[in-house]
Structures are given as C-alpha cells and as structure tokens.
Amino acid sequence: MNNRQDARLERVLATLALVIISLISLANVVVRYFTDASFAFTEEFSVFLLVILTFAGASVAMRSNRHIRIGFAERMFPRLRTPLILVQWLASVLVLGMVLWYGGQFALEEYQWESESPGLGLPNWWYVVWLPLLALMMLIRLTQMTIDRLRGRLADEP
C-alpha cells in the first residue's frame, strides 16, 4: 500500500505552510536588513502556520505509522499485540478527542465574541478553527493506520 497517497491533503498543507513561513521570514529579514523596519504580520502568520505545519505533519506521521508510540511493549509481549494496539488507539482517541472538543469550543467562542488578533486585527477564529479540523484529520488517519496494522497491511515498525 502506498501511504504517500493517503495523507495527500495534510502533505500539501504542511508543505504550503513551510514554504510560506520560509518566504515571509526571508522577506522580513531582507526588508529589515535594508530598511531597519520589519513586516508587522510575519510573527502572527508564522505562529499560525507553525500550528498548521505541526498538526498536518503529525497527521502524515500518524497515517504512515511514524508517530510516537511504545513499540517496546509490543515486542516484549507479542501475544498482547492486538490489545496493545487497541489501547494505543483508545489513548490517542481520548487525547485527540479533547483537542477536537475544546478546540472546537474555543473556535466557536472566538467567532461568537468576534475576537481579533492583536497584531493585524484579523478575526481570531480564522486561526483557531484549524486546531479542531486538523485534530479530526489526525483522528481519521490514526484510525486508518490502526485498522491497517490490525489487518496486517501495515508493518508494526515503520
């Protein structure tokens, strides 16, 4: 199975975020060097794009079985492989479920309160809404990876 195809959306998001961060940071350095001033938006956008990069990259890692997990226990107790995989899935679902729930609540509150970002005055929910969306993508990729591992379609070690 070609896992590169499975998380294409997250790969594109992570790549775009990294490219944009690089470009605006480079532009900011060049402008600061020549004018002793800097672009006001670079820090705000960079932090936002780093969150997207982190969550999208984690989703790709999740789908390709390269996420952080305790493989030692699986190797130590091979007869407990299936229950251990399910426990790992359940623990990850609980954590990502909380990120999804509370991130969604936070995004909704930011939208309802019409909060604005301190630097540029843009609606805060534009930034925050990506947290629950990408947590949902991670949940989907986690479940896909877990099913593939349980069915033997994906090696336990990447």
TrEMBL record:
Subcellular compartments: Cell inner membrane
One of the GO BP terms on file: C4-dicarboxylate transport
UniProt keyword list: Cell inner membrane, Cell membrane, Membrane, Transmembrane, Transmembrane helix, Transport
Quaternary context: The complex comprises the extracytoplasmic solute receptor protein and the two transmembrane proteins.
Pfam families in UniProt: DctQ
Protein name: TRAP transporter small permease protein
Organism of this sequence: Stutzerimonas zhaodongensis
One MF annotation (Gene Ontology) recorded for this entry: transmembrane transporter activity
One GO cellular component, as annotated: plasma membrane
Domain Tripartite ATP-independent periplasmic transporters DctQ component: 22-151
Membrane-spanning segments: 12-33, 45-62, 83-104, 124-143
Similarity section: Belongs to the TRAP transporter small permease family.
Chain's role: Part of the tripartite ATP-independent periplasmic (TRAP) transport system.
Cross-referenced InterPro entries: DctQ (IPR055348), TRAP_DctQ (IPR007387)
Membrane topology classification: Multi-pass membrane protein
